[in-house]
């Protein structure tokens, strides 16, 4: 398979005006991916599928991600004059990255036996109605998985042939995989609560019946040991 | 009634070639040895249920081999597996369509309480929120022996049910409901999240 830079340059040439960013994965897997803008997503996807040197004919996996707002700390070395001596001082700058919703597609080529190529689409923020162009017209296998993203993350896919909820029922209003999802409070009883579950079940505890004070009369020091 | 007969007299009569029984005993003996379960499974527990019905464990030895594909012919509902909230109304509907007397075995951790999915958003935290359960089998999944044990417990329960008198079986009491309301799909959860007439969770007394 060609490198991501090569694929990116090819796709940008083929789909005019397409803006593709390289998302570098610094982790051990090193699976970097391509971030595709919404307006040219279908054109880029069609190019990736149809170009003979790429021919990504299988979309194996589509999933959604909800990224929260995060703060990235960066340390840069700045030359400063300290006590009339020029020194290099670490300066910490904080960059606030707003959260966004994301759809990730994993592409393989059965014909050329290469892959995966990972492409992404991102929204500007988490609050406004999230809309992506559907890639189901390009890869039919994306149909149910885009429905699943719609169901669990509330991302609308324009051009999807049958965008309905798939796992939850149609009357359901929430998007349970979003980070701000609030579960219905139906924890009546919990045998071994701990951590977050403990906090939630505490609201359902009935307080102990008030004691009559008898339990305070005997403490450990008062109890006579049988040997005395 | 069986308790009306002196046991010593009965065994003495039996030794003389006279077999004495009661309608209740005969009726319960027939019922408990021919329990037809409803043929449906929900998750991995269903695989163990299938194994129980197959030759190695053979639930036919206890008279439970006739798995019926229709609730109208079934006596026993084995809730074998995870009940998702989307599936729960259908389970209640199946239960409602079964004729009395009907029994429920809640098989496995999921059917009892939601099991490993208890903290999730989509799994019902126990089928006993909507329908009465006779026997619970813990396990994830329970072994076929456990299902057989539950089956024998159920047979014991059927055998001990009275046909008349104060303590007669629930299904013989005219006021006792044999159908329970089917929960509706709500905007955030099932509506209602539990049937208060059926579901009585233990109260937590902690400070």
Structure in words:
The complex is a heterodimer of chains A (228) and B (207). In chain A, helix 1 (4-14) packs across helix 2 (41-50). Chain A has four helices and nine strands. Chain A starts with a helix and ends in a 26-residue tail after the last helix. Chain A has a five-stranded mixed beta sheet with strand order 1-2-7-6-3, covered by helices on one side. Chain A is of the alpha/beta class. The mean pLDDT of chain B is 90. In chain B, 29% of the residues lie in helices and 8% in strands. Chain B is globular, with a radius of gyration of 19 Å. In chain B, the strands form two sheets. Chain B has a three-stranded parallel beta sheet. A two-stranded antiparallel sheet of chain B has the order 4-5. Chains A and B meet through loops of A and loops of B.
SSE topology string of chain B? HHHEHEHEHEE
Quaternary status: heterodimer
Largest sheet of chain A: 5 strands, mixed
User: If you average the pLDDT of chain B, what whole number results?
Assistant: 90
Shape of chain B: globular
Structural class of chain A: alpha/beta
Order of helices and strands of chain A: HEEHEEEEEEHEH
* Backbone structural class of chain B: alpha/beta
Q: What is the number of helical segments of chain A per DSSP (H or I, 4+ residues)?
A: 4
User: What is the distance, rounded to the nearest whole angstrom, between the alpha carbons of the first and last residues of chain B?
Assistant: 51 Å
Main sheet characteristics of chain B:
3 strands, parallel
